[in-house]
Amino acid sequence: MTSGSGPSRRQVLVAAAAAATTPLIAAAPAQAAGPARPRTWDLTLLGTSDTHGNVYNWDYYRDAEYDDSKQNDIGVAKLATLINQIRRERRGKATLVLDAGDTIQGTPLATYYAKQEPITATGEKHPMARAMNVIDYDAVTLGNHEFNYGLPLLDLWIRQLGFPALAANAVNAKTGKPAFLPYVIKKVSLGFAAPTLRVGILGLTNPGVAIWDKGNVEGKLRFDDMIATAAKWVPIMRARGADLVLISAHGGDSGTSSYGPELPNENPVALIAQQVPGIDAILFGHAHNEVVERFVTNERTGAQVLLSEPSKWGQRLTRMDFTLARERGRWTITKKAATMLNTNTVVEDPKVLAAVRAQHQKTIAYVNQVVAQSTVELSAAESRYKDTPILDFINHVQTEVVGAALAGTAYADLPVLSIAAPFSRTAVFPAGDVKIRDVAGLYVYDNTLEAVVLSGAEVRAYLEYSAKYFRTLAPGAPVDPEQISDPAVPDYNYDVFSGVDYDIDISKPVGQRITRLVLAGTDTPVADNAQFVVAVNNYRRSGGGNFPGIVKTQVYNAQQEIRQLLIDWAQAKGTIDPADFFQPNWRLVREGVPVF
Prior knowledge:
By secondary structure, the protein is of the alpha/beta class. The chain starts with 8 loop residues before the first helix and ends with a strand. The relative contact order is 0.12.
């Protein structure tokens, strides 16, 4: 089923029925404690989310086993071990395994098979299809990052899976019909002489795709409100026999959005539970949080809806347990609860490792290719609060590419500014050999380069919005670099400009912090009506982060990946020397006194 043309209503029903034909075998009912207690059975749901291309417990940017300060491990191979353990413990009992999306993007492994040797060109099976097929999921929901590499690659990956991919609110823009399978109903056997349990599984993807991957989906797909979509499909699933309804949703539970109100809510999972009757539990993702167990009361029925989110990258596995009873010919849930398992407690599953080993090794060889020599070590550790050469490297390359592309056009005489964000706090270009993995570790997203025209007033407004990243600190108050930012604003939503000089006064209220904004290398204030070409990534230009003024028609868009532009520049130059690109142009101050 492709996203280019939505299935008919009959196709959806046939597909849902086909997905429901394989029964799961479960044990006989538990022994009743006394004659007055009804017989009960149990069902376990195991949930993963936001695996982001992680199969091995491996950090491709460090070329070493993954490690962090909390001793987390990562990868689908670790998840497989936990899932297989629980399946063995519950042998003969009903166990479902779902994933809530963001699967095929996020590591050099995933990027390699989307960009260097794309599966659409080679026909090779995607590493995440290989790994997940070994586990044998019951369904996966499409996350927003599934759309990063275009619909043909997404459609091929779906065809390579041995289980359904769901996204009820992704709609064919021309026909208004579902572009992907909305739901499945699984027939689950609960043991000898027990009536079959029919479990409905509804998938919801994130409406932000319309912004973040506009270039891939505009005019092809529409992304409807997740709450309204659940309200549409849950009654249909119940009417078609679902005894228990689960939702696998790629959206957080905060009720807020990183973009403006023009699109449906980005993180509405708690609102879905509250407003849509008939839902028993929701596995969710997208926010990369660890939510072990949360109950939300449905405002219409009073029912308690169970929610759980299993962190990111394969670090955690959600386990939901349901106790069921048969009353008056209907199944009822008498108890439900969720727990969280940590993948750092187990070894990697050898079958998953074997399935992806050749692709893993090919990726390692690729990212260890040397692209240039760096004259000194360049680190991103301080890039959030100091102007650093390594972030200027990104801005220099972006400025150079856009400037060259606009030569001879109507925009050739406008100054070119550039925007970059400190995506990584750990990125380093070592002195000496700089490898592809070093550059990839600096620019971890698959963004492409675009450019728009902004006025001086729009540049100032943009900088003011970006400056909300910092906490307000009075003059003379102690400054801890590790605590200088507002935890509500992620690092990737703090942008710095090159091409103008400016001060950010963090002692002043948000919105009044850009106390100096002048033309580069001068004392001339930037006029409100001045015009600039601004190089920016496609995520930001499409509205990601809800920055003001940037969502407008591009004057440059060659669909060139920024990470590859950085690699190409380094290879062509052969040497990475800060003297070629470092231009200190911004600083944090308090009442004009530099903070650092």
